[in-house]
Amino acid sequence: MKTAQAGTLESMDCLVTASAAERGKGIFITMEGANIARFRDSILKTAKATLQELGIKDVVLSIQFNGANDVVLKARVEAAARTLMGGEE
Question: Residue 56 — φ and ψ, nearest 5°?
């Protein structure tokens, strides 16, 4: 399965892993890390909005959250997704 990663496990960052999903399977996101319960809705909203902006409808995302703000999270999701699509290495 094709995968791509962006980010780090450092404090105030996140590691996003994007994996190809079968067409029609939709977006599936898993999350782990500190304060997930507190920021879950915000993380999901940012990740889904970023994928929608890129026109991605079928992907599996794994987010290891270590306190990243929305701008960092968006950049990491976008970088992993673009790399997965072959747009950037």
Answer: -90, 125
Inter-residue contact 4 to 78 (CB < 8 Å) = no
The DSSP line for 8-59 is -SSTTEEEEEEEE--TTS-EEEEEEETTHHHHHHHHHHHHHHHHHHTT--SE
% pLDDT > 90, the chain:
92
Cα–Cα distance measured from residue 29 to residue 75, given in angstroms and rounded to the nearest whole number: 16
Average pLDDT, the chain: 95
**CATH number 3.30.230.10 is the correct assignment for the domain at 3-86:** yes
pLDDT in tens, 45-81: 999 999 999 999 999 999 999 999 999 999 999 999 9
Dihedral sign (CA 46, 50, 55, 56): negative
Domain boundaries, the chain: 3-86
